[in-house]
Amino acid sequence: MSQNYKLSVVEGVGVIDEVRRYRGSRILDIVSKIMGQSAPEIMTPELAVDIFYSFLLPVPDVVRSLEKGGVDEETSFRLQIISALLASPNLWPVKPYTIADSVTSLVASASFIEKLARLLQRRGGGQGEGRKGPEQSEAQDLDEKRISEMVSKALEQVDKDVKVAKDVKRILTGLGAGKGSVLAFDESMEEVLRLARETDITKVLEKIEGLKLPAVRATYERFNRGWMDGLEIGGDLERLHYSQLALPLIYFLASMADSKLLLYRKVTPVSKGPIYVLMDKSGSMVGTKIDWARAVAVALLKRAVSEGRDFYARFFDSIAYPPVQVKPNAKVSDTVRALSYIARVKAGGGTDIARAIMTACEDIQGGRRRLSDIILISDGEDRISPELLSKVLKAANARLHTIMVQGHNVYLKQISYRYMTVKKLEAKEVIKVVDFT
After folding, report:
1. Do residues 436 and 409 lie in contact, with contact meaning Cβ atoms separated by under 8 Å?
2. Number of other CB atoms surrounding residue 401 within 10 Å
3. Residues 24-63: pLDDT tens digits?
4. Higher-confidence position of 292 and 185
């Protein structure tokens, strides 16, 4: 073992070996990407590791023996920062989100270091290019009161970021094999942090906070070489139940002639096309309407990936905007980008519902053999041709679910597989929209 390894200043962590130091380096990489420049040199991987464990451990404490002195400048600075961090009252509102959670602890660490680095640069006037400069020398000379103020201020930013990160993790965890792992999130931590700072993502997540989506109900169809699903009467010898071999030959032949043999019933899961969300962003959707529509889109994203279906989201007003797509095997970064796309849209413009539906049908034409679901969310009146759109939907093998937000459209009602009028923009209404077979 190399003798260059340093000890953590957090009680119980011990030696900061290569694995732990790598984690610290990754946190600093995220910080550099968010800042657009290298973090100050005083922000070492060892400091990042100590901050990470300060968030991760339930009741962290500093190594008391180090407080007696006799340590190098870098360790002394770490000790100052961690002591101030653990003593700050702003830490404890954050802890419920980070205790024993590696993902949110990583986000909290990167957020904290980034804010602290900016405060140090502002005080020292340096640019923080990773070289020794005013911000480093002054950081080492900061008094205890000033460090405590900077740490508390940095924790205010962490509190905002980590709450969103926790909600994003809840959305993404369990969507597929490996989707909820620390490694999967580690690759996308920069995107998660940027998403946390999107002002509108908080509004979206508040709408679905604590929302329990209905269990996925698989749909099956008969298939002679599928899974055994029960018993039935018929004449297909390939699915013959073994008990029929004990019948007298004459009785067996008579039952076969009358198709009255006991058979295994076999089924296979029905392969479905995408869930395609069309969201009206016209001027009348501003405010709570667009927030609710975006919350529905996020809930439908969860359903789509849990069912192994492609997901599309497209906003429209008088024109249809480019869609975002998430495949069942998508990376965490792809899903985070989709969430960011949904959160960023601003209401404004006119309404052209017919063009939006036709564009969606064109997108899913390639999978027309599979049943697709188009969920249209709008509040606007728009004169359309029911006959034309019915043909377009049939050609795409798509069902139209129309969700009218405090509005009504008699033409859409004629062509919709499901038509809902939502008056109260509440979580229970989100469940009704998402729960369909």
Report:
1. no
2. 22
3. 999 999 899 888 888 888 899 999 999 999 999 999 999 8
4. 292
- Beta bridge mates, 376: 278, 402
Q: What average pLDDT does this structure show over 305-317?
A: 87
Residue 42 has, within 13 A of its CA and on its CB side, a CA count of 29
Lowest pLDDT segment from 100-109, 179-188, 287-296: 179-188
Each domain of the chain, given as residue ranges in start order, spans 6-197, 223-269, 272-434
Ranges 89-103, 142-156, 355-369, most confident: 89-103
Phi, psi of 38, deg, nearest 5: -70, 145
In whole angstroms, give the CA distance from residue 228 to residue 383: 49
- pLDDT, greater one: 340 or 56: 56
- The confidence score (pLDDT) of residue 8 equals 93
One-character DSSP codes across 196-236 = HT-TTHHHHHHHTTT--PPPP---EEEEEEEEEEEEEEE--
Residue with tokens 């602290």: 116
**What is the 3-state secondary structure of the chain?**
CCCCCEECCECCCCEECHHHHHHHHHHHHHHHHHHCCCCCCCCCHHHHHHHHHHHHCCCCCECHHHHHCCCCHHHHHHHHHHHHHHHCCCCCCCHHHHCCCHHHHHHHHHHHHHHHHHHHHHHHCCCCCCCCCHHHHHHHHCCHHHHHHHHHHHHHHHHHHHHHHHHHHHHHCCCCCCCCCHHHHHCCHHHHHHHHCCCCHHHHHHHCCCCCCCCCCCCEEEEEEEEEEEEEEECCHHHECHHHHHCCHHHHHHHHHCCCEEEEEEEEECCEEEEEEEEECCHHHCCHHHHHHHHHHHHHHHHHHHCCCCEEEEEECCCECCCEEECCCCCHHHHHHHHHHHHHCCCCCCCCHHHHHHHHHHHCHHHCCCEEEEEEEECCCCCCCHHHHHHHHHHCCEEEEEEEECCCCHHHHHHCCEEEEECCCCHHHHHHHHCCC
What does the block give as tokens for 183? 């490694």
**CATH dotted code for 272-434:** 3.40.50.410
Q: What's this model's pTM, rounded to 2 decimal places?
A: 0.72
